[in-house]
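Problem 12. The chain below contains 431 residues. Write out its predicted structure in token notation.
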Amino acid sequence: MRLYLVQHGQAFPAAEHPDRPLTDPGRREVATVAALLARGQPRLARIVHSGKTRARQTAEILADYLNPSPPVEAATGLDPHDPVEPWIAAANGWTEDRLLVGHQPFLGKLVSRLVLGEERALVDYRPGTVVCLEPTSAGDWRIVGMLGPALPVAAVAGGDRAEATEASDAMIGAIAGDIIGSVYEQHPIKTTDFPLFQPRSRFTDDSVLTVAIADAILTGQPYLDAVRDWGRRYPRAGYGGTFFQWLFAADPRPYHSWGNGSAMRVSPVGWAFAAEDEVLRQARLTAEITHDHPEGIKGAQATALAVYLARTGAAKTTIRARIQRQFGYDLAGTVDALRPGYTFDVSCQGTVPAALIAFLDAESYEQTVRNAVSLGGDSDTLACIAGGIAEACYGGVPEAIRAEVRARLAPDLWRVVEAFEHRYPVGAVRC
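Solution.
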């Protein structure tokens, strides 16, 4: 049995709104926390909130993200200065998981009394913070996880209950897609029936620059520096001519590109940042070092947001609707409808929607990549973009694919993949 104690999200001051509803940033932060909480697959019998508007709204957002969605109900006794003893007695008798949405200082007192047996500062509650507790065999309680807008992604409460059924290296899905598609970039095909790996299958610029973005996130170095560093290490990876000139320029400046290079390298951003606004901001930063055309930036942001939504448990219908609404891409078609008239296209606007359709019209990682390659276009980049999203959706890639990637990726590139996975592990997600 687990007990989740949640402080409501950021609310308006009483002077502005007497009933103190959630602010727009508060709603977004709660939604972020809810999506991450859903990755831990909590088995909630019900969500209980105080009678205050801000607590009710927080509870409703949390319920919307959980699957199955638990019943939500109001209860007395959860206000800021209510006594905690009735809830201690109730919790010690529960056999099913529950989530309570309340206020400070009530929640802080309840945690400390359950864990320490006395009221003492134990948890630094902030709006949107989740604390997960479970009873011990000794009759007291222990904290098993915390989650909040300012806490790292990997701190999702629920921990050992979620078991990935696939290999769990974040961003390897994008790299695998690149390697699988590499053979067909110059020799496009229009079928899903092909060998995934051949002797000529290799990593290309898509993989090198994906690793560069991941390394920048891990080390804190500017994206421009990391991309130039890794690009120069692998000068024959298959870059476009203008990018190659930028790579070795004395004074590198963006060149107003709308090419798909901004989207192919961005997937680590979707894994590393815990809020949508920050995912979009970082995606823009990765793009505009070279691809500062609005379409180049849009392609990177759409790809990163799709990875973020998929790895936080959003349904495919939600991902389709969000990307269409926010970026104006037409994602209504199917792979079979798109394939006959699709041709080689290196633009973001020609590549990203097609890659998204390849993902949306699939039921597994492998099917996603086969769909992408079968379109007969820029195969390695289509499969890189689609594969990165699919990995986030399905919680990893098949072990056989991971082994093939490991055998083909250079050791220094693989070290970054492993470091990134340790920092940002893949959860057991299925969108």
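Discussion. Residues 282 and 387 are 20 Å apart (CA to CA). Students who got a different answer should revisit the alignment rule from Section 12.3.
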